[in-house]
């Protein structure tokens, strides 16, 4: 037996194959333990305490940008609100990064962001705040989605000012090839927007001049004013400083700490964070991570949300509004002169809704539907109940005041309101229980949806909800 053979026998069963990795040669459990240690360190670094501290640090930069540009702060939801103290935020916007992803560029007809025009009209511009996780200098929402929106709006509202029709994107982020591909789609985006038949004259009255977009990050060389007197200035501000993809372990800083908050916030909201920021930031890691420590903040925010009123929706040019809100808003709204209430939920909440069913006044219809995507699908089976309910109300009034409510006030209730607008309201926004049952088109449905979005800026019906509504309406019940 050779010396080599003896060594092999001492290590284990003899084999002709050499070890293919260090792990297979020595300490096979060491690699596993090392991996667990790395995972533990990463989890520790991504603690809620580090996230809130990083958010607060970045918020100082955001406020500095607002001061240097002399413009108000608009949060691009859902991430942007974490970086703006509640008393500093004038509004919210809903520009999605997915609408700016490579090859998927889009002007969303479901997220028109017309409320931003009101802010621009009042302040001559605004700073739109968002962030992104490590590895990127800015989110696609700011580098592409917002620029597309500005350009399409310029083309719609200033058709004769050709100079403002050119697309502006940050050259350090968007290459020339991608820029050209996006620009080639702009005319198509504009034509799709025109199909909604928005009141262009009313929108144009809000803007004295075209829009111009610029970008500021923590890597910007200086914060000199970027305004141009010939334009309304839209500043896209990326709140977080850029880190390597692996992040910086030493100081606990987390780029884009406010992103995907549903995965780490354990129910804490931006409003609750800024309400008790001093308390949260001075607490230890262990205290912040304890759910009990956050209960008071969550309870305060829940109370504020429950007390919120429903949003008035004005169909077309009508002066007779409909209302959309959360289930909690039903009880507070019932004191108004409503003719009908339609709720969507998995079951009736007797605490908040029970009193309505036996009370004189508005007629009540409950559409039983589950939460999430399942609710959007089950809604399809409930929609046929709407038509006879509204027809019954129509025998009592020519201008019914209706309230639509669901758990979020943004999804199922919007779908039900959209159904009613399509079945009972003409193009001018007038209620008509005898509208001809001719087949409806997707463009017709989109125009009615734009009425809702123009008034309720946080309306966000799920795709499954819209598919259920479309499927029902395209069959046009008799």
Low-confidence stretches: 1-15, 37-41, 349-358
Question: Radius of gyration, Cα only, in angstroms?
Answer: 27 Å
Mean pLDDT: 83
How are the strands ordered across the major sheet?
A: 2-1-3-5-4
Structural class: alpha/beta
Total E-strand runs: 10
Shape: globular
Distance between the termini: 94 Å
List the secondary-structure elements in sequence, H or E. HHHHEEHEHHHHEEHHHHEEHEHEHHEHHH
How would you characterize this protein structure?
The chain has 478 residues and is α/β, with parallel strands linked by helices. It is built from 20 helices and 10 strands. The chain has helices spanning 3-11, 22-25, 28-45, 48-69, 115-123, 140-157, 176-183, 186-194, 200-204, 270-275, 277-282, 285-289, 291-306, 328-333, 350-357, 372-382, 386-394, 412-424, 442-455, 463-475; strands at residues 73-76, 89-93, 125-130, 211-216, 232-238, 311-313, 322-326, 340-345, 363-368, 402-406. It has a 5-stranded parallel beta sheet with strand order 2-1-3-5-4, with helices on both faces. It has a 5-stranded mixed beta sheet with strand order 6-7-10-8-9. The protein is globular and about 65 Å long. It starts with a helix and ends with a helix. The model is unreliable at 1-15, 37-41 and 349-358 (pLDDT under 50).
Condensed summary:
The chain is of the alpha/beta class and 478 residues long. The protein is built from 20 helices and 10 strands.
């Amino acid at each position: 037996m050779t010396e080599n053979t003896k060594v092999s026998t001492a290590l284990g069963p003899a084999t002709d194959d050499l070890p293919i990795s260090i792990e297979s040669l020595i300490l096979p459990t060491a690699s596993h333990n090392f991996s667990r240690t790395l995972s533990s360190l990463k989890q520790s670094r991504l603690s809620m305490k580090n996230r809130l501290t990083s958010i607060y640090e970045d918020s100082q930069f955001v406020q500095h940008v607002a001061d240097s540009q002399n413009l108000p702060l608009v949060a691009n939801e859902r991430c942007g609100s974490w970086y703006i103290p509640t008393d500093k935020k004038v509004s919210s916007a809903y520009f999605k990064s997915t609408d700016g992803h490579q090859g998927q560029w889009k002007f969303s007809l479901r997220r028109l962001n017309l409320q931003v025009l009101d802010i621009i009209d009042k302040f001559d511009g605004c700073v739109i705040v968002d962030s992104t996780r490590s590895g990127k200098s800015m989110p696609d929402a700011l580098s592409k989605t917002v620029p597309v929106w500005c350009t399409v709006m310029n083309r719609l509202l200033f058709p004769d000012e050709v100079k403002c029709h050119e697309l502006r994107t940050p050259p350090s982020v968007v290459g020339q090839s991608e820029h050209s591909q996006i620009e080639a789609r702009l005319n198509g985006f504009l034509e799709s927007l025109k199909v909604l038949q928005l009141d262009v004259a009313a929108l144009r009255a809000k803007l004295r001049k075209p829009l111009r977009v610029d970008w500021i990050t923590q890597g910007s060389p200086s914060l000199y004013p970027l305004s141009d007197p010939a334009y309304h200035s839209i500043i896209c501000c990326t709140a977080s400083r850029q880190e390597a993809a692996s992040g910086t372990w030493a100081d606990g800083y987390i780029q884009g700490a406010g992103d995907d908050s549903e995965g780490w916030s354990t129910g804490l909201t931006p409003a609750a964070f800024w309400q008790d920021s001093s308390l949260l930031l001075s607490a230890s890691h262990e205290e912040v991570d304890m759910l009990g420590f956050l209960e008071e903040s969550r309870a305060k925010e829940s109370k504020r949300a429950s007390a919120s009123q429903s949003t008035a929706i004005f169909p077309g040019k009508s002066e007779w509004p409909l209302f959309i809100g959360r289930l909690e808003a039903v009880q507070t709204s019932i004191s108004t002169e409503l003719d009908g209430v339609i709720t969507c939920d998995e079951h009736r909440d007797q605490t908040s809704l029970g009193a309505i069913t036996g009370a004189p006044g508005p007629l009540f219809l409950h559409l039983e539907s589950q939460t999430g995507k399942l609710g959007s699908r089950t809604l399809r089976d409930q929609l046929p109940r709407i038509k006879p309910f509204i027809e019954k109300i129509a025998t009592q009034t020519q201008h019914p005041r209706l309230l639509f409510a669901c758990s979020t006030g943004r999804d199922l209730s919007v779908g039900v309101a959209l159904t009613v607008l399509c079945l009972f309201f003409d193009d001018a926004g007038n209620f008509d229980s005898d509208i001809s049952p001719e087949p409806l088109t997707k463009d017709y449905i989109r125009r009615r949806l734009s009425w809702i979005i123009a008034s309720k800026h946080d309306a966000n019906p799920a795709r499954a909800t819209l598919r259920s509504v479309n499927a029902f309406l395209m069959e046009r019940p008799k």
